[in-house]
Design goal:
This protein has six helices and six strands; from the N terminus they run E-E-H-H-H-E-E-H-H-H-E-E. By secondary structure, the chain is of the alpha+beta class. It has a six-stranded antiparallel sheet.
Amino acid sequence: MKQIFGNFIEQDDAQDYLLLSFLPHSALLQRWFNDGLSADFLADYCATFFYANDGLSITKQNEVKGAIYYIVNELLENAIKFSVQTPPHPIKLGLYLYGQELKFYLSNRIDTFRFKKFQVMIEQLLRENPDDLYIRQLEKNATGGTTSNLGLLTIINDYKATMAWKFEPVLSAPKIITATTMVELTI
């Protein structure tokens, strides 16, 4: 059964969009990911839509580019880290431009064990104040704790983005779930 967390908005037609697919754990994906090449590429590509004719300053353009880079890098890093390897299924990343709003959609497949852990974290993100969670996580890191969830909290806190998730079971593989993360960023 499909589960939604947050205000998940299904992808719809946008005037401008870009879709990329990677096979998890493939040599090509590692090459695109290791040097931030995919995040750089997507940030550069999207930044072309926000130049002088839109009235954005160079500083603002660089902020937009930095936000896109960080969000894409974080989403891909998590997808690579948590995707199931078998059966092979591509990680799909889409960026959709709606005027001054960018929507990122990243889909990958995870196992039911990771889904349950992810669900607990998502429910905490949606229930608690993200600023408080961020401070607690920083304090935990300072005492040698884990950096888990810090990237998602940074997306929410530093870039003022909203996030939502959709989880759908894979009918052909009962212990596998397709996870789609949506990030909405206002430029």
